[in-house]
């Protein structure tokens, strides 16, 4: 029987050529492949100097309460950025993903908006993010092709951090977590990058292979099990790696495009200058158009000037003769500031300031904890320092002259948000989201550190709590063997908990559709002499 959830693609990383594709542009749920973009944003923050590998991220009560897979972080505690990266790569920890989102953007929602914006800038036209971890959300979707693009982009843009995806195991607070990507170390040339699973998506995997001068990025989505997904990926690597180029890289680096054209002052061969001398009164705006220069256009673009408001701007005197722009009379061209925030907030852009020094008493500030007023004051102070002229004959500094000019307040119109309510896909459409199928009848027991799927909230059956994870796994196997078909298709799962200063491991079966199904399974376990109870978590 054909698998309706399946999608796959293989791309030659050197030429950009698609070597294989199957439903590559059909919508799919990314599950924990989402965390590749979460890590991409973390790498952005590191490169910009707003974070360091030793920066500490605070854990909120909400983040600590995210469902497994998780590290079990406690509210009020902190985790280093480096540990957060390794936890996302190996354990695929949902609580850590939320910690990252809240510390960078203030909330999961705002972070997801940044993720989606970043996806668009990379050319991922069919990807929308609603959260940073990939837990079930009908509005969070992507395609195999978009995931391949992300897999290539994160290597090209952040090679200094990409090596984290090679991590086979990670130790945190005395526990060792294995990487869910079981192709690492088993398939020659595989150097990352990420697995993912929720029931609606099936088993997903993005893989990068670099062998014998050839490099490919491959994606498999919708596998029926972790084993079958890995087998399909291995098959694709074996069949298509040999078809990849061994020559020099010819495809351009994946460009990170902004959502709107960017003003480049240097693009003006003869930038027009004001006729009035600095310090004189500026003439009121006449309503004439202004000249805009963008890096995407060879010729200036003409746009109308809205009704201006007054603001104070510092300027320096110039000796060059003014240049008249043909057709514009005495109008002074004003370069636009195309930003997502309102125009009056752009003076407080945090990236214009140097990062907080490590010895600063504000060491624990996050990127969202600096107020707009503090940034504005710092920016003004910096401008004053930079524009102060040489001292006069008595040693007193002469401040630069200032004038009052006409400026405009630009209102931005946000793009309409894509939600589950306004996205309707026809049932017969080739790009429709896959219908959620029942669990596979595979009897294989999956242990917690061997590609454990991210468990979505639902009814579960807990049998016991053991002192070691191995004991919990053995108990789950024994219970499944004794109950026959009653637990077929249910996923065994272990979860560490702290009790009276001791770490115990819960032994649970998950994946029950409702309370009745969970209680029925528990009844069967009790008849087989296993203690249990049903719980929703």
TrEMBL record:
<dbReference type="Pfam" id="PF00768">
    <property type="entry name" value="Peptidase_S11"/>
</dbReference>
<dbReference type="GO" id="GO:0008360">
    <property type="term" value="P:regulation of cell shape"/>
</dbReference>
<dbReference type="GO" id="GO:0006508">
    <property type="term" value="P:proteolysis"/>
</dbReference>
<dbReference type="GO" id="GO:0009002">
    <property type="term" value="F:serine-type D-Ala-D-Ala carboxypeptidase activity"/>
</dbReference>
<keyword id="KW-0378">Hydrolase</keyword>
<keyword id="KW-0133">Cell shape</keyword>
<dbReference type="InterPro" id="IPR001967">
    <property type="entry name" value="Peptidase_S11_N"/>
</dbReference>
<keyword id="KW-0961">Cell wall biogenesis/degradation</keyword>
<dbReference type="InterPro" id="IPR036680">
    <property type="entry name" value="SPOR-like_sf"/>
</dbReference>
<feature type="domain" description="SPOR">
    <location>
        <begin position="453"/>
        <end position="537"/>
    </location>
</feature>
<dbReference type="GO" id="GO:0042834">
    <property type="term" value="F:peptidoglycan binding"/>
</dbReference>
<keyword id="KW-0732">Signal</keyword>
<comment type="similarity">
    <text>Belongs to the peptidase S11 family.</text>
</comment>
<dbReference type="InterPro" id="IPR007730">
    <property type="entry name" value="SPOR-like_dom"/>
</dbReference>
<dbReference type="GO" id="GO:0071555">
    <property type="term" value="P:cell wall organization"/>
</dbReference>
<keyword id="KW-0573">Peptidoglycan synthesis</keyword>
<dbReference type="Pfam" id="PF05036">
    <property type="entry name" value="SPOR"/>
</dbReference>
<protein>
    <recommendedName>
        <fullName>SPOR domain-containing protein</fullName>
    </recommendedName>
</protein>
<dbReference type="InterPro" id="IPR012338">
    <property type="entry name" value="Beta-lactam/transpept-like"/>
</dbReference>
<dbReference type="InterPro" id="IPR018044">
    <property type="entry name" value="Peptidase_S11"/>
</dbReference>
